[in-house]
Amino acid sequence: MSSKCKVKTAFIWSSAVVTLSAILxxxxxxxxxxxxxxxxxAINRTTADRIQFLTYNLLFDLNQYLYQKIGEEAYLIANTGxxxxxxxxxxxxxxxxxxxxxxxxxxxxxxxxxxxxxQFFTYTNSDRDLILLSALNLPANDAFYNEAINIDANLAIxxxxxxxxxxxxxxxxxxxLNPIRLFGLWKTATExxxxxxxxxPSWSSGDSLNEIARNxxxxxxxxxxxxxxxxxxxxxxxxxHYQITARKLNPVQCxxxxxxxxxxxxxxxxxxxxxxxxxxxxxxxxxQNLNFNYNYQTKLTSENINEVTITGIIE
Amino acid sequence: xxxxxxxxLTDSIAALSLVSILLAxxxxxxxxxxxxxxxxxxxxxxxxxxxxxxxxxxxYITELTVILKARLSSAETILEKIVKLCPSELACKLTLYxxxxxxxxxxxYLHDTVYGEAKCFISSNKTEATLLCQVSAK
Lengths: 315, 138
Prior knowledge:
The complex is a heterodimer.
Chain A: H1 3-80, H2 90-106, E1 110-122, H3 130-135, E2 149-161, E3 166-178, H4 182-199, H5 209-233, E4 236-250, E5 253-267, E6 274-276, E7 279-281, E8 284-297, E9 307-314
Chain B: H1 2-30, H2 32-57, H3 60-69, H4 75-83, E1 90-97, E2 103-108, E3 115-124, E4 127-137
Antiparallel strand pairs in B: 1-2, 1-4, 3-4
Helix pairs in contact in B: 3-4
């Protein structure tokens, strides 16, 4: 082979090697950049999934927290017999928010959480969030939801991952409920008292204090019986402690003192309970010492007794 | 003639070596195993998150909260229900931690050292609990 031919062969070989190297390098570079891109996408997707999961985790947790808090509040209100004005103090909610923030920080996120527009009112058969109800183990509809407690709130969440430069902002309207029939208990208890007070003057009859007191008691029991049966059919349990006193004012007039020492009405609904001191507790509305009196005019028999008192319990 | 042949052989050996080195470096850089691992971990994490979200929606987490609040000892029963939400071709392990990071109870087993995980926050009784769900291939 001539020297000219050798140079030509060497040139061809070199060109082939250089071309092949260039192709391989190009393939390698493309593949590497594709892999790094898809890895970055995968990491972003994982972070986005994580943020979304955390957001829903907080939504469900707040729903559950409000449900529990309302239960505790309802228990306190019912026990003290106060009107059912439910409110969760800001400190309680701040406690939840700070707990959540601390936990989320540990997970590598910065969180801003705002809970606003908290409202608790009588259940109306409308737009409750069925997923939130399901999360509380509650059915979509129940006959005993009437006069239960609607829970409405707004939740705004802002999660930021500074390392991966990811930001997520979410806003939820919570429309949940606590099936404790606090409003129903209050309404029933006050109606029982008011109706007793309205009807009682017509129950007195007889002409001796003993007879007047006994007749009043009998009529009272007869009056309560159908009401009680109706309440039992609605899964309410009632207990009334009463004291009826007939007091002679003058030979033709006596005063009847009606003292409803206790009206206890318990919600026996399937889902109506609160966790109090680590126990599942039924909610019992307790009204105490409801008194009223009225005068009854009749010609009283001449007896030496000036006062007759009867006490009893209707369960 | 021999000298002419020797030159040609050297050329080809050099070229072959260079190509081999380039090929090797290309395949070393791509490392498909690590990509597959990332995919598997991502998939397992997704499944773990779905398991926890479904258990939230089904009310299992609320049941767990009630158990934690009432200090009942049947948390395992609920965790077993949650484990069953995991697809049967995957293995799932659940661990419940209290606010101090102490393990309250554990259910299920992992069948692989490669796994994805998700953590769920549970507020309960003025402290928080954490439910950790780990998912791996069987």
